[in-house]
Amino acid sequence: MWLKPKSPALGDFEQLVLLGVLRLDPDAYGAAIRQEIHARSGRDVSINAVYTTLDRLERKGLLRSWVGDPTPERGGRRRKFYALRPAGVAALQQAYQAFASMVDGLERRLEAK
Amino acid sequence: MRRRPPRVAVWLLTRRLGAEWREFVVGDLEEEFFARSSDSPRAARAWFWWQAVRCLVSPPPVNRDLPSAQSSPSPGDSIVQTLIADIRYAFRVLLRAPSFALAVVAVLALGIGANTAIFSMVNSVLLRPLPFEEPDRLVRIFHVPPQDAFPGMPTFAVSPANFYDWKRDARRFERMAIYRFRQFTLTGAGTAESIVAGAVGADFFEIVRVRPALGRVFLPEEDSQARRQVVILSDRFWKSHFGAAPDVVGRSLRLDGEPYTIVGVMPASFSVAAWGATARDLWVPLAYTDDERAVRENHNAQVVARLNAGVDAAQADAEMRVISTRLEKEFPKENAGWGATVVPLHELLVGDVRMSLLVLLAAVALVLLIACANVGNLILARSLARRKELAIRSALGAGRARVFQQLLIEALVLGLIGGAVGLLLAQVSLDAGATLLADQVPRADEISIDGRVLLFVFAASILTGILAGALPALRAGRVDLTDALKEGGRQEGTVGIRTRRLLIVCEVALSLVLLMGAGVMLRSLLALRGVDAGFDPRNVLTMRVTLPETRYKEAAHVSGFFDTALERVRALPGVQAAGAIDDLPFRGGSVQPIVKEGHAELLPRDQPTVEVRKITPGYLRAMGIPLLRGRDFVAGDVESMLVSRSAATLLWGDDDPIGRRVTLPLQSRTVLKQVVGIVGDVKQGELSEAAAPTVYEYSREYSWNSLALVLRTSVPPTSLARPAADIIHKLDPDQPIEELRTMDSVRDETLTSQRFSAVLLGLFAAVALTLASVGIYSVLSYIARGRSREIGIRTALGARTPDVLRLVVLEGMTPTLAGIAAGGVAAFGAARVLERLVFGVSALDPMTLAGAAGTLAAVALLASLLPAYRAARQDPLKALRAE
User: Fold this and answer.
1) Predicted confidence band at B277 (pLDDT cuts at 50, 70, 90)?
2) Chain A interface mutation, best of B28, B49, B88, highest count of A Cβ atoms under 10 Å
3) For the segment B560-601, what is each residue's pLDDT rounded down to a tens digit?
4) DSSP state of A104
């Protein structure tokens, strides 16, 4: 690969996860993101898929993470929270703009009846 | 109260997930689980499991560079992970080739399913202990009759007086009980019914150690004439006659017109098949009178016993032999030549079928081996088609062992799926065949799939996977990289030919052994069916009528009933002749010593014995038994006797027996019976055995209260069943009729176990033949495709269709013939085992062997003709241009 793009294009599921993180900010963690995606897109994804993607996005430099305090409803386990890094915001913007410009003028045909 | 998520799932997750993720993933799942479980705990659990499974299959990756990750993965992780990766890959590969996967799974499921079905029979019948407490200590004790008088008879029923002496003297038994069977007529609930009950002596239930489900077992004092009118029901009888009423204890039952009080109900698990299949429904006290106890020369009772702890059957047998030797000396008149033997209950029950079942298991294992060869062939073809993929893997650094592991795991996955489907097949076929099995094997009702069967299926699946996968995997491990990667490297169809030929040789050899076995069993069955039993079973209807002794006390009363019944039956249109006998042929019956007039009665050891049957006039004509000399019985004869040809020879040699007189000392030492004629020999026991010398007796007034009526008809015999039964019911409405059937079916019944083995072996052989022909066909198609270029050149150079046909057919027939040769050798080994199961034909019958070999050769020829024809028809130009 000689021509490495500056910010890699996001996959479909990566977009969903990033948007989930953005919506939930600053309380985005695995289960919450999973439920957000389920509630809004109808996709019942598995927790491992969410974490696999979060992990990949973090390694790409689009997300950062920190560990919260133990809570009783999780059997005393801690949460791992995620938030967008600037690169993540940029990648989302890029994806959104690409999508929006492609959609431009097609809204009426794409609108669900 | 807070609900907890499924513990096993949590445990699995913590094991599977890297330390880095464990806490967050499990925490997230648990959190959502609680949220969900407030709606529906069940759905929440299901959800948790579903999420857990998905995590287990593909957990989030482990990041070694992140500080939070454990610095070194736990040992074994890497093996488990490559294994899981391989398994996932195997599934993906198989999904990509669904028709291949389907074919393999179908073949394996067939093979494993058949094995599982037969193994669960072997398991339930031979391996599983009997459903009693400490069943190893349960034995039956028999007399061993004097071999000169009872040739070929290993055991004999026991005489009461001898039993009581055994019981007094034997030290190696905890308890011993005597019992016998009694026929009762049950009345009072709709139509009268004839029932065989077990009449059991004291201690019977203590020996078996089964607690009743309701009520109690018999009290010791109930084994007496005064208090004998009590009865215990089987679970089946309780359900069928009392609708499982819980208050049945204390009610009463009318047996032979007498009231019996119900004292208990046995549990459903109390199988009495081991004590005699006829008595399953009722038990009453034996209640011998003192006179009955003292009978020593009449052998008519059964004995069951429980050994002392630590004593085995051989030790008990030795003790019984010592005791009977002493009793022989003490009572020479009755006991000379009579020994005793101890047989473990389990042995007694299944001894007869052990051989057949093991032969079937071996046969079905051969089917599985053939299936393995077929699947191996398919996998080989697949792995060659994937040569490029495998070569790339090797080029990228996968060692031969790694490629081998990958292919083997694919085969194992196929084996396990095949096993799972096979298990289903086995369950379905066992369910479907349950009623059929009930008549064929003892303990059939216990046949089921248990843990051991599951283990067997698992082992068989793994083994099958390894067997079918190892050869191709080894073969594929030897990929020549440059050759495989070159576009248009060596053509498909030239690789692994030797391996494939070997598979054909194996398949053909195994099929030959199976065909041979099935053929021999079939010929044996035909030979048995063709045996002349001494009478003509066609167009004969039989039915048993048993008059209760309580209502028919006088001889005149009994004979009056039967004489009238026979007279009226004879008047039915379509009836040519009618008579009656106490025990029909094949059903066994009384064997008694016989003494010629003017000769002293010898010791039992030396006294000749004969089968003794009681018949009425008309029986010979109805059965079609030829009268050789003298005359048949006529109504009004007194103490007359007919002798069979072999009985005449046994007793009088070349002299004329007609007019001679004999006594049957077991019945009476004073009544002389006069021989009036000689009749043909009839097989009273097994079809495969010689006809035993038989005498038939008749006297004008008889008290034989249980007779089988025999009708020879000129119309289909079953059409007379109803009118004949009506005649009996008109004479006595309370009179049950049993065993209403044709003589053909009585005869057929003696062949059931033979037929069972022959049918199953035939089925297995057919499957084997199909698999082998499919195998030969696919290998040859493959080879022919590979040689299409060569064939194209040959055709271009002037080879004609027959030349090409010969070329390809020879290619297939060479390994086939090698397989037939190898199979012939293997058949020698199999014949040794089969020898004991066949009748009237050698287990290595040359005709059958030739037939089996011919069939295989013909099938192989057919299977090779199609690819050969296709090769000959191809356009040589196209074949040559194909590169």
Assistant:
1) very low
2) B28
3) 899 999 999 999 999 999 999 998 988 878 888 899 888 888
4) T
Chain A residues with CB-CB distance to B31 below 8 A: 31, 71, 73-74
Does residue B6 sit at the A interface (CB-CB below 8 Å)?
Answer: no
Q: Do A55 and B32 touch (CB under 8 A)?
A: no
B63–A31 C-beta distance less than 8 A: no
Calculate ∠ Cα B206-B211-B290, nearest 5°: 35
Is it the case that residue B876 has pLDDT exceeding 80? no
Cβ within 8 Å, pair A30-B24: yes
CB-CB contact of B118 with B757 (8 Å) = no
pLDDT category, A3, cuts 50, 70, 90? very low
| Three-class secondary structure of residue B283 per DSSP | strand
Distance CA B148, CA A2 (A): 103
Q: What is the largest CA-CA distance in chain A?
A: 52
Q: Between the CA atoms of B373, B378, B381 and B384, what dihedral angle is there, to the nearest 10 degrees?
A: -90
Alpha carbon separation from B455 to B417, B420, B423, B829, B880 (Å, rounded): 15, 12, 11, 29, 54
Answer whether B223's CB lies under 8 Å from B286's CB: yes
**Type of residue found at B739:** E
Number of H helices, E strands in chain B: 28, 22
Binary contact (A80, B58; C-beta < 8 A): no
Write out the DSSP string of A29-55. EHHHHHHHHHHHH-----HHHHHHHHH
Angle at B590 between CA B598 and CA B139, to 5 degrees: 125
Identify any residues that bridge with B144 across adjacent strands, giving them in sequence order. Answer: B339
- Residue from the list B25, B32, B34 with its beta carbon closest to the beta carbon of A48: B25
Q: What is the dihedral of CA B234, B239, B245, B247, to 10 degrees?
A: -10
- Using an 8 Å Cβ cutoff, are B543 and B737 in contact? yes
Statement: the pTM of the whole predicted model exceeds 0.80: no
Residues 6+ apart with CB under 8 A from B378: B100, B103, B104, B107, B778
Sign of the dihedral through C-alpha B258, B263, B265, B271: negative
Match 């084996």 to its residue by tokens: B415
Which residues on chain B are in Cβ contact (under 8 Å) with A20? Answer: none
Task: Write out chain A residues lying below 8 Å of B30, CB-based.
Answer: 73-75, 77
How would you class B633 by CB atoms within 10 Å of its CB: exposed for 0-12, middle for 13-18, buried for 19 or more?
Answer: buried
C-alpha pair distances (Å), B632 with each of B130, B262, B615, B636, B713: 50, 48, 11, 12, 20
**Separation between Cα atoms, residue B847 and residue B869, nearest integer Å:** 32
How do residues A75-90 score in pLDDT, each as one tens digit?
Answer: 788 899 999 999 899 9
* Helix then strand then coil, % of chain A, to nearest 5: 55, 10, 30
Residues in A closer than 8 angstroms to B60, CB to CB, are 48, 51-52, 55
- Centre a 10 Å sphere on the Cβ of residue B154 and count the other Cβ atoms it contains: 11
Give burial (CB, 10 Å; 0-12/13-18/19+) of B353: buried
Question: Bridge-partner residues for A90, per DSSP?
Answer: none
- How far is Cα of residue B725 from the mean position of the Cα atoms in its chain? 35
